[in-house]
Amino acid sequence: MDNIPQAQKKYVLTDIMKKRKHQSSLNEERARQIKERIQKKKQKTKDFVHPEKFVDKYRKQQTAYSYFKRKERKQNLETVDAKSIPINKTLLVVRIRGVKDISNRQQKILKELRLNKVNTAVFVKTTVDIWKKLKLVENYITYGLPTRQIINDLIVKRGHIMKDKEIIALKSNEIIEEYMSEKDIICVEDIVNTIANASENFDFVTKFLVPLKLNHPEGQLKSGKIKKPLTKQGEWGYREERINSLVENMI
What we know:
The chain is an alpha+beta fold. The chain has 2 domains: 1-48; 54-159 and 210-248, CATH 3.30.1390.20. The protein has helices spanning 6-47, 51-77, 104-112, 128-136, 148-158, 173-180, 188-196, 202-208, 243-248, and strands spanning 90-95, 120-125, 141-144, 160-163, 166-169, 212-213, 237-240. The strands form 2 sheets. The chain has a 5-stranded mixed beta sheet with strand order 6-2-1-3-7. Strand 4 and strand 5 (166-169) form a beta hairpin. The longest helix is centred in the N-terminal third of the chain and has 42 residues, at 6-47. The protein starts with 5 loop residues before the first helix and ends with a helix. The model has no long low-confidence stretch (mean pLDDT 83). Residues 91-141 form the Large ribosomal subunit protein uL30-like ferredoxin-like fold domain. InterPro entries: Ribo_uL30_ferredoxin-like_sf (IPR036919), Ribosomal_uL30 (IPR039699), Ribosomal_uL30_euk_arc (IPR035808), Ribosomal_uL30_ferredoxin-like (IPR016082). Keywords: Ribonucleoprotein, Ribosomal protein.
């Protein structure tokens, strides 16, 4: 090597460096291709759904639809006695189950009630039509008669209003006066009175209020019980005044 001219030495070293650089690029490209193949294989395995899952999902949806149709037929055959339901009273309705296996008709009713998510709650004024709707979706909700104290706690701690597509927390009476003074509602007490008494401005107030977001109650609404009615030691259905003890643990 010592006898090789300096210029030739330089050429040989440059050639070796080029080969090494080229080989390094090839190795990196191979490693990248191998990594891509592994990722594609994993994604393909992940995206694959066994046919049994589709069949199981279809069966559950059919079961939910059949339940809804039975309830609907029963309502059509029965005449609702207005004396047996709390007409013109305030009901607190809480969503306790998700959309899995729900029928399209039930999902539509829940959307009308603005109960799109689990552990959200709304106030409704009881009419025969509202009562019928609640009965059609009651295996996804629980509802009852709230006390004034529970209504107050919900408004103070969880109350938000919607104005111009913006959600605003009811942190002060100034906010209430700004948005509701046209109906002579200027403070939290006015909102509580309107809801508790189901007065003439009930619809105005409840439309302004965003559905109340609640916490999951510790030790209650367990997955095994929310699929059963209250009459069978479950969770869904009409609780009357017992709704207050449940919601108290969710605020």
